[in-house]
Design brief:
Layout: H1 13-27, E1 59-64, E2 70-72, E3 75-77, H2 79-91, E4 102-107, E5 111-116, E6 119-124, H3 130-156, H4 165-174, E7 179-181
Parallel strand pairs: 1-6, 6-7
Antiparallel strand pairs: 1-2, 2-3, 4-5
Helix pairs in contact: 2-3
């Protein structure tokens, strides 16, 4: 008589597998991609519309090459110098001919004030490190924040974030920091 081979009772294997699956789903953390909050401009209805001409003195041209070096209006700068350069560009305290023009504009709460016609043009190389890109963006945002805080404190004695929506809108009109970001290209390096 032949002996039967003992079998493993597999009736509860499906239950165990299901419990393990639930355990791993509950205990595993999923990485969520993070990014930069950017509000993109609306797509123009008439694409044949030509962009307005901007004088060269009204443009702060920032180029970042593949070696993560900054060229700001033809001058090599470090990222740590970018914030002060940006603030000086928009304020133009000495009405320098090399910095942006200003126009008289009536801004609520402020009256008739001189508003900069300045615009930032930012272009990166395709080989620019993401960390450098973020640091440049952070410095530009910090410059904008500081300019808005200065005007807010000057007018109301409070920081920009503490103002109501109408007051914030007025400050944005007084300090219109516009950034035009071009598509990355191969700019090269040293």
């Amino acid at each position: 008589m032949a002996r039967k081979t003992p079998e493993i009772n597999s009736s509860s294997m499906a239950d165990i597998a299901f419990l393990l699956l639930i355990f791993f789903l509950v205990t595993t953390t999923m990485d969520v991609d993070t990014g930069i909050y950017k509000k993109l401009p609306a797509i123009p209805e008439d694409s044949s519309e030509t962009p307005p001409k901007v004088k060269q003195r009204n443009v702060l041209s920032i180029l970042v090459n593949r070696n993560n070096e900054l060229l700001v209006n033809g001058e090599v700068l470090s990222i740590s110098q970018l914030r002060d350069k940006t603030k000086e560009f928009f304020l133009n305290p000495t009405n320098s001919e090399s910095l942006p023009e200003k126009a008289v504009k009536n801004v609520p709460y402020f009256g008739d004030v001189m508003v900069s016609k300045g615009l930032i043009s930012l272009q990166n190389d395709r080989g620019t490190k993401y960390e450098t890109y973020i640091r440049v963006q952070d410095e530009l945002a910090a410059a904008s924040r500081e300019l808005k805080d200065e005007k807010s404190i000057q007018q109301w004695g409070k920081k920009y974030e503490e103002l109501n929506e109408d007051q914030q809108d007025a400050v944005r009109k007084y300090v219109p920091v516009q950034i035009s970001e071009a598509e990355p290209r191969n700019t090269g390096g040293k």
